[in-house]
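User: Second chain of the day. Same drill as before.
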Amino acid sequence: MKHAALLRAALAAAQVVVLGACSELWPPVPVELVPEGEGSLLPPTPVTAPPTEPAETPDAAAGHPLPSAPPTVAPVDPDAPPTRPRRRMDIDQLDRAIRRVTGGIGWTEVRNGVEVNLFTELSATLGKADFVQITVDNLETSAIFQKFLGDAARSVCERRLQADLAAPADQERLLLPVAPGDLDPAGIDAHLVALRRTYHGVGMSPESPEMESWRWLYQSVLHVSGEPARGWNAVCVALLTHPDFYLY
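Assistant: Same format as last time:
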């Protein structure tokens, strides 16, 4: 009995030392002492359950995080017509389009007996790719493009006008009406509608609001110059420099 009492006193002192050392830990780990006569007198080792990890989905395991919310999709109107941004003609297309509406007259000039295509000569300035320094056509409607397009329109319209004036009475004219000086207001409107359809491929009613601007242009030039031919020449220049001509 004396030895058992000494053994219990020694174990109690050891427990005080162990608990004092563990008191520096936070949070403290609860320790249960085994009562006398119930097996070992040493405190049991606390068992901590391992942390649980969320199960990996196939996308997460592959390194692709799942979206937090489904993406929103704008509603599509099934009745809306298909559209795209309008593009500017390149230089070759513009040259062919001008020749088509003017009966083969292009923006050219004669030098030493040789007819020079000015669109070809100025192609680099107008943004055409040479595939040496520039590999993509510049199709911006820049100020320099507008300037040279105006020069081309005034040149070809004047030549088309002179060709119509010199044509026999029984020959079809492309710019002037059959009798440019004898048209009544209805005849002027009909010829404006025909020119707009030829140059822009757009039908226009004489009663439409946009008709007023074309009618005003013709009448203003006619009032200043007193010559119907000058009025139709101004209409020709306006048609060629209009965005409806070089954009598609």
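The CA atoms of residues 27 and 51 lie 17 Å apart.

User: Great, on to the next one.
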